[in-house]
Amino acid sequence: MNTYRYDLWKIFEILIKYSVLLIMSFFALLPLFWMVLTSIRPLEEVFSIPPTPFIKNITWENYLYIFSDNRFQRYFLNSTVVSLSSALISTLIATLAGYGFSRFKFKNKERLFLSVIFCQMIPLTVIIMPLYYIMEQYKLLDTYFSLILSYFIITLPFSTWMSRAAFTNVPIELEEAAQIDGCDKFRSILLISMRIAAPAIAAIFAFCFIEAWNEYVLAMTFINSTSMRTIQIGIMLFRGEFYTDWGKLMAASTIASIPIIILFIFIQKYFVSGLARGAIKR
Amino acid sequence: MSKKTIISLLFFIPLFISLIITVGYPLIYTFCLSFFKKDVTTLIPSFYWLNNYIGVLTDETFYIVLQNTLVWTVLNLILTFSIGFLLALILKDENLKGIKIFRIILIIPWAISVPAYMSWKWLMNSDYGFFNELLVKLRLTNKYIPWLNDPNLVLLACIIGNVWHMFPYMSTMLLAGLQAVPPELYDSAEIDGATKLKKFIYITIPQIKPTIFVSTTLYLIWTMNSFVPYVFFPGGLGHRAETFPIYIYKLFFTSFNFGRGAAAATLLFLINLSLAMIYMKILKLEW
Question: Which one of A21, A90, A214 makes the best mutation probe of the B interface by having the most chain B beta carbons within 10 Å?
Fold first, then answer.
């Protein structure tokens, strides 16, 4: 009798858990589902009353428009150039510093590391005005470089943290053994530590890329001309001539989201363990 | 300096130069600027004592904005934390079939921001919004809610968007915390005949308390400085969807009152600094 009641309770618990999971998954996917749906519908279906998720006709018109529109081509190009170069440089800087933080011993190392972490907590609004002056002074406004430089703020602290953790996981004995075998210091770092930490470094690169791709506050501040806009700003300020053309807007949004979601799913394991490591223990 | 020191320095120089240019120098600049009168009418900034701060503190909109920021931060925290915690508890259950797939699905919103906010705006449209249609179908309301037009609801609309984007962060952090609880603790409690609720109160909560504190403090900092309401309503809607960072941003780039903007920014920085101090304290990262 007792076990029977226990089983019923167990089944009830599992049912509750699955319903919460399903409801939340629905909530999580709703905007994405609706985005894709809107983007492949003909105009009259987009503006149907009442809105319905059942689709009658599929059209690729919106995607053809976005791909052939030279504004959007330009936005995607801008975003790609900025995100790739900023991710590349950030990863390089963070890998170097992370290696240094994990390997070298010197006074005030922890304090120095903390000040790097601290930079992550400084609000963008506090530093944005002086940055604007700097950009203005060196004629950097409206250039890729202004964004590549300013994206350091959002990418460097966390990626330094991640790369320090990655190198701490590589036993220094491996490097020392390589040096005994006749490797010089530089080659032992490159061949042993870098190779073992490579997946983590790839994750750092992806993290920086995603952060840069998704950034919009700095991009809307330092970029004035339409042709230099990144895709986020392009989407944010998209207006039709008489009304917002949601089909086209959602097509652009879909193109801007899908690669990022796929990349994110691939790296989330590293990314999460990096964040969690900081939260749970030192 | 020995050759070794110089080589070690080379590892750090790029990082510190970048951070000094992009964070350190601007931070000091803002702080100094907050004591000067500088706007579109002044060519040469003049020392202004604390007048910028007085200007901010006697501005009526500042208090509306402060109230918005409070509502924005607290509601976001409550919603994100409850959803995140509930999900973390469920996602921890390895025995559930398909739990790995749910873990991936439920992290996706974290990956995208602006495109998804646009989609939310479209979903909440007062004539064609599917979100409204859904609420009506579920009998939660009997007519469409003008999320984006009713001044009393606009901030709530932004909060829904932000909770959607951030709940995966909370659930992931708390899940990692739950997974780090040593299973032996539960086993020995089981032998002592502890109920589920007792195990939750006396083992789970104390064990993940540090994780809870750290993830909520970080979340508070991010949320308070968020520009999400600006993405939803770049036009502004009066001041109904304006939070502290947006108020500062507008002082800089719309009213061109740089001195006062810097003063407001310094105030925001001080609030953040105290939160960051708590964060570092919890992590036991002493200076």
Answer: A21
Inter-chain residue contact B176 with A280, CB threshold 8 Å: yes
Interface test with A, best of B3, B13, B18 (most A CBs within 10 A): B18
Q: Do A129 and B258 touch (CB under 8 A)?
A: yes
CATH 1.10.600.10: does it fit domain A65-280?
no
pLDDT tens digits for range B42-77: 778 889 889 999 999 999 999 999 999 999 999 999
In the block, residue with structure tokens 């086993």: B187
Q: Cβ of B111 and A97 within 8 Å?
A: no
**Single-letter residue type at A90:** S
List the domains of chain B with CATH numbers: 59-256 (1.10.3720.10)
Q: Assess whether pLDDT exceeds 60 at residue B228.
A: yes
Of A81, A28, A237, A266, the residue nearest B116 (C-alpha): A28
Angle between helices A109-119 and A152-168 (to 10 degrees): 140
What are the backbone angles phi and psi of residue B127, rounded to the nearest 5°? Answer: -110, -45
Predicted confidence (pLDDT) per residue in B90-141, tens digit: 999 888 899 999 999 999 999 999 999 999 999 998 888 899 999 999 988 8
The residue extents of the domains of chain A are 2-39, 65-280
pTM of the model: 0.91
What was the pLDDT predicted at A4? 60
- Tell me the residue type at B32: C
Taking a contact as any Cβ pair under 8 Å apart, which residues of chain B between 15 and 44 contact chain A? 15, 18-19, 21-23, 25-27, 29-30, 33
